[in-house]
Design a protein that fits this description.
Helix content: 10-25%
Structural class: alpha+beta
Number of domains: 1
Radius of gyration: 17 Å
Strand order of the largest sheet: 6-5-4-3-2-1-11-10-9-8-7
CATH superfamily: Lipoprotein localisation LolA/LolB/LppX
Strand content: 35-45%
Low-confidence stretches: 8-35
CATH topology: outer membrane lipoprotein receptor (LolB), chain A
Number of strands: 11
Number of helices: 5
Order of helices and strands: HHHEEEEEEHHEEEEE
Shape: globular
Length: 219
């Protein structure tokens, strides 16, 4: 499942892609006990930073595998709630209400809905997801950057998400969620980079309601 990639098919314009480059660790490095301990500690720090987010608002730039980008504003309220408000002219809205992710296409009056746990974003949003259990740290070559890849080996159809955290004393747990790369079961990749992060702000639950284009009902 990759409802986000649907967005790019509506734009039809190539643009420069964002990229995340990771360093490569040698087998000797991975075998060293001190490195293994450091990685376990970094995973704990990243998970603590993720769980420390109560609310978050940020600007985002979303890039697909062909390099097309769109922007917007992301609002998140844990557990489970998220809203991708896309830039003007993009008739799509993605909302998570704590149980499911819903994509609303106002142009064709279509609504699609998936359980949060069945999406790569489940690692970010699902309060029942044991992130540390499925997490693998990817080397970055920078002590101030943690790259955490989360994939449930028993459910490859849920996809993979790689979250990037950057050291920031003002963020929960001392690390700021900077970006993530979601890879769905069809190997479609979506990169989301955040800027202007605001934590702990007041977010009304009404933020995660949406107007059903098939009727006049507001959900």
């Amino acid at each position: 499942m990759n409802m986000i990639n649907t967005t790019f098919r509506k734009l039809g314009r190539p643009v420069a892609a964002l990229s995340l480059v990771f360093a490569t660790a040698t087998p000797a490095m991975l075998a060293a006990p001190s490195v293994a301990q450091a990685q376990a500690s970094d995973i704990d720090r990243a998970v603590a930073a993720l769980r420390g987010i109560t609310t978050l608002r940020a600007n985002f730039v979303q890039t697909d595998r062909s390099g097309q980008t769109i922007s917007g504003v992301l609002t998140m309220k844990r557990p489970g709630k998220i809203r991708f408000q896309y830039q003007k002219g993009v008739p799509l809205l993605i909302v998570g209400d704590g149980k499911a992710l819903t994509m609303i296409d106002y142009e064709v009056r279509q609504v699609q809905r998936w359980p949060i746990g069945n999406s790569p974003l489940g690692a970010l949003l699902d309060p029942n997801k044991d992130v540390a259990r499925f997490a693998k740290q990817l080397p970055t070559g920078d002590a101030g950057v943690i790259s955490l890849q989360v994939r449930d080996p028993k459910h490859p159809e849920y996809g993979t998400i790689t979250m990037i955290f950057v050291r920031n004393a003002g963020a929960p747990g001392g690390f700021q969620l900077d970006s993530w790369v979601a890879l769905d079961s069809q190997n479609k990749r979506t990169t989301v980079r955040l800027t202007g992060q605001q934590y702990g702000i007041a977010v009304d639950d009404k933020t995660f309601r949406w107007t059903d284009p098939r009727t006049t009902t507001r959900r």
